[in-house]
Structures are given as C-alpha cells and as structure tokens.
Amino acid sequence: MNLTTSYLGLRLRNPLIASASPQNAELDHLRWLDDAGIGAVVLPSVFQEQLEAGTNDYASIGAACAEVPEFLAPLDGGPYGLIPESHLALIMRAKAELSVPVIASLNGASASHWTRYAALLEEAGADALELNLYFVPVDPLEPGAAVEQRYLDVLGSVRQAVKIPVAVKMPPYFSSIGNMASRLVKGGADGLVIFNRYLQPDIDLQRLELSSELELSSAREIRLPLLWIALLAGRVEGSLAASGGVESAEQVVKYLLAGADAVMTTAAILREGPGCVHTLLAGLEDWLDTQPVESLEQIRGSMSWLRLKKHDNYVRANYLQLIEGFGSAHRS
Ligand SMILES: Cc1cc2nc3c(=O)[nH]c(=O)nc-3n(C[C@H](O)[C@H](O)[C@H](O)COP(=O)(O)O)c2cc1C
C-alpha cells in the first residue's frame, strides 16, 4: 500500500509524525522512531524565554556551531535545559543520522529579536520549522484582534528569517478558526498543526494551590481537531497536520478521512515507546486493505466538509439531533 504523503512540501514515506516532546531530544530515540518507520520527527521546542535569557548574539552561536565540532559531542541536560547551541547540534546530528525529515520547533508568544534564531535552525539543516504560538490572553482588555495580530506578527518575522517551510501549531481558541487559519496561510505559513494542546491548571484542594500535572491525551480528544481538519481540508491552501489524541490506528484513519495530510502523535509514543509507530502504521495498512484503494491518497479527505454532500453532522443540526436523541433515549 502506498502511504506516501506530502506535508509542507516535504515528501514523507507515510503520514505519521512524532510531534515535539522531550524524548525527541535523544538521538537514540530518534533513531528508533526512524527504524520503526516514522514519517518525520519534530524536535522539542526552543522557547522564546530561553533565547531572550541567552546571549542574543545569534551570529556567534551560529559560527560556534559551524566551526567547533565539539558541539556535536553528546548533549547534556534535559531537553528543556538544552541551550540553543545544543539544539543546533541536535539538528545537525539528527540530519546526519536520520532518513526522514527533521522539523525544528520554536515556541514563543510575541515578535522580537528572538525570532532571528529561526535562521540558525535553518542553517543547522532543519527541513522545516514548526512555530508553536502558545499565548494565554490573560488581560481582559486585550481584544481578540490584537491577539490574532500577535500571532501574525511572530509568524511574519519568522517567515522573513527563513526560506524553509513553516508550520504554525495553532490553538483552537479563536472566534473564527477558519478565518485565522486562512490568514496564517496568507501570512506565510506553509501548513497548520491542528491544534496546539494548551495545558490548563487544576486546584489542589489539600494544599490549596494550583497544580499543573501534565496528563497525556486520550482518544476522546480527537473530536475538536477532527472537526476542524474536516472543515478546513481543501479550503485553506496550506498543509494540515492533525495533532491530539492518537491512541490507535483508528484515530489515524479518522484524521486522514477528515483530510489531514499528516497525523502527529506524542502521547502514544510516550506511553508505548517507538514500537507503537509500527503498530499504528500496520493498523492503518490493515484498514486501507479493507477498502478498494491502492494508496492513502485515495481516501484522504473523503469525509471532509468539501467532499461530503451532507453537512448536517458538522453544524448546528448535529447539536440539535444529539440533544433530542439523548432526551428521547433517557425519557422514562
Ligand atoms: C512531555 C511533553 C512535552 C512536550 N513538549 C513540546 C514542545 O517542546 N513543543 C511543542 O510544540 N509541543 C510539545 N508538546 C506537545 C506535543 O507535541 C503534542 O502537541 C501534545 O502532546 C498533543 O499531542 P498528543 O495527544 O499526541 O500527545 C509536549 C507534550 C508532552 C506530553
């Protein structure tokens, strides 16, 4: 079965991408993912805060990495302790050793000089760049339009710094997701990751303090990204990667039917190890074998808004039907 796909203009052997996670800072882990058949990998993010706290002398970071082979020595510290130089070394080593595209990731919330670091990621060999725009608009006086502009500004300055494809890992918190998606593409994004997973805090009732335990996603979480992949597929110009809630091949198949060009997973890999890549791909092939097709391309987007004749389940009618159905099923 032909599973090849195109994402951000990159040819992938299959649509499965290991999204950014700390394990992707380890070369052994990246090699295992490659051996298990992953389509591409996203490295852990370099954060705006790390870059602003550092030297800011991006020219000398780049020169040091290019000239001093010791930068390619084993990386120390945890992935989020990775200094920007080590990050560049990670890209170089991953590019030298992996057979699949290596996507670097930048995580920030406002445009300033840190975005120039993107050029170093490109120089180090990254095949593409993922921009994680994680911003919580805590100021009730900040209008939605200003928040949207903030995203476009960061994208604009990263876009100016690099020629490689750029994807935006966007949150689902816009009043018009479709409009924002189109504006991001017009603003220079070659693709969108649907969606960034924001981590909300909880309250610890014993200690009376905020707790922020990181819970891995479950398959229940696919419905929001699934809806938006289906609504956007074929209607915005950039590539679409679905992200969130992959536990088994079932979710991968659903995202592809909705119209995703690629499907990302972190939780499944963190839970089960790189071996799950093989399981997910085998499950995808098994499902495709039940269909009268020879390639993934033939089923992609067949359940998208654009391709379905009947849209009821994607709009308010679905809500009404569900509530009515629930009411009659539970009436005594
Ligand atoms: C421990 C951990 C670390 C992560 N680090 C990053 C990161 O550096 N950059 C990023 O964009 N996303 C990061 N993510 C988010 C994942 O890339 C992914 O978007 C999220 O886990 C949802 O996908 P999933 O349901 O497949 O886990 C991280 C997630 C986890 C669980």
Automatic annotation (TrEMBL):
GO terms for cellular component: cytoplasm. InterPro entries: Aldolase_TIM, DHO_dehydrogenase, Dihydroorotate_DH_1_2, Dihydroorotate_DH_cat. Pathway: Pyrimidine metabolism; UMP biosynthesis via de novo pathway. One of its GO terms (molecular function) is dihydroorotate dehydrogenase activity. The keyword Cell division does not apply. Its cofactor is FMN. Keywords: Flavoprotein, FMN, Oxidoreductase, Pyrimidine biosynthesis. GO terms for biological process: 'de novo' pyrimidine nucleobase biosynthetic process; 'de novo' UMP biosynthetic process. Residues 93-287 form the Dihydroorotate dehydrogenase catalytic domain. This is Dihydroorotate dehydrogenase (Fumarate).
